[in-house]
């Protein structure tokens, strides 16, 4: 496994410098772009790393996965009455479909869907952002994980479009709590800082039929795990989901902080980090590294 990682790293490293960091979130605009790390966690709990795999970074939309799983544990199948399971085919922050589809977001990984899930967790937990933080701490085995307040506040200051999305859903009776309260929780989830190693461990249950590292704890049922992986495969990579499925063939979720998690079901979870993004908003080196991975292992879910 370590040899595999080293080969991928050496193959992709010459691309370092391609892309640009997310500058629409001011606090992320100053992140050093020339970083690159990979971590793998196999289904026995062994972690293998290369490069900047232990550097914490802002997980951004990767948090939507953990937010969803936390809600699934409490709402079960009833969750899908409020959010769909279809690809959107539109930008992740689009409001167009909400108007036509009566305030029901297409899936939990576009902003509208993640806001509905955050609203559900807001109803369930006294401090939902702490619930998500503690959840990822437990999954990753790292009690030091925290949100970067500067990043969270920066996102809240530029909340207008997300607020408009939430208020539109509220107009369709698909949003229960105060919009500003939910936005605070949502942005704190996005501002969580985790390393590749943290995320590979934290997402490992999705590669292991819902069981955490070494099968010690069941996080989701096998059916729920398949549902989440299906959503990741169809909707986890913004508008690059189809191309990612075509090139990589694995369930994955990206964030504009430069991270991508992906699952090789039955074998291992992987996280790649490099802050410079391609034109679709995904890590340029991350996509390249995962493309290299599936070329080397000759395996995809398809």
From TrEMBL:
Molecular function via GO: glutaminase activity
Catalytic activity: L-glutamine + H2O = L-glutamate + NH4(+)
Recorded superkingdom: Bacteria
EC primary class: hydrolase
Pfam families with a match to the protein in the record: Glutaminase
Amino acids binding substrate: 61, 111, 155, 162, 186, 238, 256
Acetylation recorded as keyword: yes
EC number(s) recorded for this UniProt protein: 3.5.1.2
InterPro entries: Beta-lactam/transpept-like, Glutaminase
Protein name: Glutaminase
Any one GO biological process: L-glutamine catabolic process
Entry keyword set: Acetylation, Hydrolase
PANTHER family: GLUTAMINASE
Protein family per UniProt: Belongs to the glutaminase family.
Quaternary structure, from the entry: Homotetramer.
């Amino acid at each position: 496994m370590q040899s595999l990682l080293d080969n991928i790293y050496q193959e992709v490293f010459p691309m370092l410098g391609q892309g640009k960091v997310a500058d629409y979130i001011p606090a992320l605009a100053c992140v050093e772009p020339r970083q690159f790390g990979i971590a793998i966690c196999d289904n026995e709990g062994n972690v293998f790393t290369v490069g900047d795999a232990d550097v914490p970074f802002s997980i951004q939309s990767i948090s939507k996965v953990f937010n969803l799983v936390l809600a699934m544990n409490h709402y079960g199948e009833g969750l899908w009455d409020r959010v769909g399971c279809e690809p959107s085919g539109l930008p992740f922050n689009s409001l167009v479909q909400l108007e036509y589809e009566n305030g029901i977001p297409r899936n939990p990984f576009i902003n509208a869907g993640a806001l509905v899930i955050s609203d559900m967790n807001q109803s369930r937990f006294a401090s939902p952002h702490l619930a998500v933080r503690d959840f990822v701490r437990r999954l990753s085995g790292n009690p030091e994980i925290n949100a970067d307040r500067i990043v969270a506040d920066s996102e809240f200051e530029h909340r207008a479009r997300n607020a408009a999305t939430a208020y539109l859903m509220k107009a369709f009776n698909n949003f229960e709590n105060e919009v500003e309260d939910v936005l605070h929780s949502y942005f704190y989830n996005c501002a969580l800082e985790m390393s590749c190693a943290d995320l590979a461990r934290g997402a490992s249950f999705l590669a292991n039929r819902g069981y955490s590292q070494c099968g010690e704890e069941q996080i989701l049922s096998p059916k729920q795990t398949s549902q989440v992986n299906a959503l990741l495969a169809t909707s986890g990579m913004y508008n690059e989901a189809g191309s990612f499925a075509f090139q990589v063939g694995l369930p994955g979720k990206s964030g504009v902080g430069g991270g991508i998690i992906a699952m090789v079901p039955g074998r291992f979870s992987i996280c790649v980090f490099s802050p410079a993004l391609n034109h679709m908003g995904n890590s340029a080196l991350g996509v390249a590294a995962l493309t290299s991975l599936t070329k080397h292992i000759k395996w995809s879910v398809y």
